Amino acid sequence: MRLYLINPSNSLVSIVKVRESRWNHYRVWKPLSLMVLAALTPPDWDVSIVDENLGVPDYQAMPQPDLVGITAFTSQANRAYEVAAHFRNLGIPVVMGGIHATMCIDEVMERVDSVVTGEAESIWPQVLEDARQGRLRKCYEGGLADINDVPPARHDLLDAGYAFGAIQTTRGCPLNCSFCSVTTFNGARYRQRPIADVVREFKLIREKRVLVVDDNLIGTRHEHIARAKEMFRAIAKAKLRKQWIGQVTINFADDEELLALAAKAGCRGVFIGFESPEPEGLLEIGKKFNLLNGRNFRDSVRRIQRHGILVVGSFIIGLDIDKPGIGKRIAETAHQYGLDNLNVLFLTPLPGTRLWEQMTSQGRIALDTFPEDWKYYTLTFPVAQYKHLSPDGSIEEMISCDKDFYSMSRILRRLWCSFWRYRKPLVNLVSNLSYKGNFQLNCKAYIDFKYYLSSRHSCVKQS
Ligand code: B12
Ligand code: SF4
Question: What is the pLDDT of residues 250-297, one digit of tens each?
Fold first, then answer.
């Protein structure tokens, strides 16, 4: 039995455009979901993973599979349906799972043979057996997996074309920020994989650099942090010689021992959601956590950097409190905090989130022709109606923010600081150039997006 596991592309996502900006080579990440699914697949299946981010293959020329499994974030849903239609026309059954299939079951069910919701560990072998017997059910519910059942991913299946390997050590997040799907999808309980499993899996990764995909690698409570320390000790002891980056909450900065252990274990960069320069903004999206203990963000960022760890900060444009000028304000705040990189996104109501409920009930979803419009749900387009910012206005804010933070003079200043602080100017240069390159790609995409918006409006007026 031959199985294809497919990660669909979205040409509007700039970070996978390697030809247009070669720095993106460092930002095309492996689809870990499919590597885990492959690991859950019995050995008598011949499994191939197709990552369309590396190029769309000629499916016609490939041997016909017996089953196709597709994963999709919401932004990939359109392409997922195109791929599904291609194989279904050939009479090959298609199963779709992942975050979009879980949040939009009815839409997906109309376009594939079978939908798998939630985490797949407990249910995937059953799906395969049913497919083998030709009795696939319309829907399977995976729910939340027992974290001990997460197998080491099949790192051998995608072993070329990526600068980074990928691994997951925890699932779930208790914070439930209004715009984020993680708490709904992976649950509020923070589940940690056994440390021995993590170390064993790390050893299977061939790449020297690794993305730890956890939404919050260290967790929020005392016992979470204790486990993170234990894991970092074990990774350091195993002498894996990997350099890795991960996502954490700002409390990472509060514990010198934690920082030292992370650095010793190979941590070279962290991604932190600051979300808004204003306390009112954090309250609006339900991220009070960042406000605890009257934190000084600049000091927190410095403490992390002192351990040779780069800090990438994420902010959102489009909150109800955001007024014209927010772009410059974010750039200035990021500069004051001393961030190495800044990643700014538009507030986007993703299906299944509290924000989605709120904006739907207020009639504020601007791009609502689904499934076509899902391709704009990349967080890089203003898809909702923002309180004080028009679509054009919000794009202008984004441009002014990026222009300011990624001006050559600011980049050179950051390089200089990074040289003096932790002797890593090269990593800093690559990441800054990658963001700068994507800013230029995004500007082109905004022009097409504005054209799309105006043609939609004229269609609405005519009808
Ligand atoms: C790593 C990551 C990325 C990587 C992607 C790597 C890759 N190629 O997959 C990068 C950084 C590139 C990325 C980009 C984006 N991401 Co992202 N990302 C994540 C993150 C943190 C982890 C995903 C992961 O690897 N998990 C580990 C695997 C093992 O779990 P899993 O993917 O859930 O897979 C399990 C199940 O879902 C299921 N499953 C999955 N697929 C399939 C398929 C079949 C057939 C079956 C049966 C089962 C199944 O089985 C798996 C095992 O249990 C998630 C958060 C999260 N917790 O999921 C956000 C998340 C998926 N990202 C999100 C978003 C919004 C984006 C972006 C649109 C915007 C952005 N800038 O962040 C872009 C879009 C990229 C695109 N191509 O369109 C949202 C998606 C919400 C949604 N409704 O779409 C999430 C949920 C975070 C959030 N804030 O809500 N992301
Ligand atoms: S944004 Fe981060 S902290 Fe907030 S719910 Fe999502 S994963 Fe948790």
Answer: 999 999 999 999 999 999 999 999 999 999 999 999 998 888 777 899
Which residue reads 């949040």 in tokens?
A: 103
Best substitution site from 9, 26, 32, 33 to test ligand 1's pocket, by max atoms within 8 Å of Cβ? 33
Q: Answer whether 51's CB lies under 8 Å from 32's CB.
A: no
Q: What distances in angstroms separate CA 112 from CA 70, 121, 246, 268, 383, one per listed residue?
A: 10, 20, 34, 41, 26
Cα-only R_g, the chain: 22
Count CB-CB contacts under 10 A for residue 182.
18
Contact criterion met (CB below 8 Å) for 335 and 405: yes
- The bound ligand whose nearest atom lies closest to the alpha carbon of 175 is 2
Give the residue, by CA position, lying nearest to ligand 1 atom 51.
33
Phi then psi for residue 212, to 5 deg, are: -90, 110
State the Cα–Cα distance between residues 192 and 219, nearest whole angstrom: 10
Tens of pLDDT, residues 351-402: 999 999 999 999 999 999 999 999 999 999 999 999 999 999 999 999 999 9
pLDDT digits (tens, 9 = 90+) for 225-247: 999 999 999 999 999 999 999 99
Distances (CA, A) of 348 to 82, 107, 274, 380: 24, 19, 16, 9
**DSSP H helical ranges for 306-405:** 326-337, 354-361, 391-405
Ligand 2 binding pocket, CB closer than 6 Å: 173, 175-177, 180, 182-183, 215-216, 249, 273
